[in-house]
C-alpha cells in the first residue's frame, strides 16, 4: 500500500515512467511511431490492433497498461516531429536482429484484425526494403 502511494507521488513529480521511457529513448519512440503508422495504414483503428500494440509495449518494452494512455498521448503530441523515413533511419544503424524485431512487430499489428489491407502490405514491404530484411525472415518468425 505504501509503495503504491509512493509510486503515485513520484509519478506526480517526475511524470509517468512509461512516458519517460519513451521520451528518453529515440529508437523506442521511432518504433512506436512506426507501429502506430501500421495501425493507421488501413484507415481504421481496430481493437485487435490496439491489443497487439499494448501487448508489444508490455512484453517487449516493459510499458505497463497504466502508462499506455500517456504513451499514446505523447506519441500524438510529439510524433509529428518524426516522419516515417526518419524513424526508419534510426533502425538502419541497429543490428539485424533488432531490425527483424521491428518488422515482426509491424507484421503482428497488420495481421491482428485478420484483414491485410493493401496499404498495410505496402508499408510493411517498404519498411523491409529500407531495413534490408527479407520477408521470409519475418514470415518464419510470425507464423
Query: Structural class per helix/strand content?
Result: mainly alpha
Please give the share of residues in helix. Answer: over 70%
What is the first-to-last residue Cα distance?
Answer: 42 Å
The overall pLDDT, averaged over residues, is 84
Query: Which sequence of SSEs, written as H and E, runs from N to C?
Result: HHHHHHHHH
Give the overall form: globular
Radius of gyration: 16 Å
Strand content: under 5%
Low-confidence stretches: none
Number of helices: 9
How many strand elements? 0
Overview of this protein structure:
By secondary structure, the chain is mainly alpha-helical. It contains nine helices and no strands. Helix 3 packs antiparallel against helix 4 (47-61), helix 3 (26-40) crosses helix 6 and helix 7 crosses helix 9. The radius of gyration is 16 Å and the shape is globular. The protein starts with a helix and ends with a helix.
Write the layout of secondary structure elements.
Blueprint: H1 2-14, H2 17-23, H3 26-40, H4 47-61, H5 65-78, H6 84-92, H7 96-112, H8 118-131, H9 135-142
Helix pairs in contact: 2-5, 3-4, 3-6, 3-7, 4-7, 7-8, 7-9
How would you concisely characterize the structure shown here?
The chain has helices at residues 2-14, 17-23, 26-40, 47-61, 65-78, 84-92, 96-112, 118-131, 135-142.
Kindly list the characteristics that best describe this protein.
mainly alpha, 78% helix, single chain
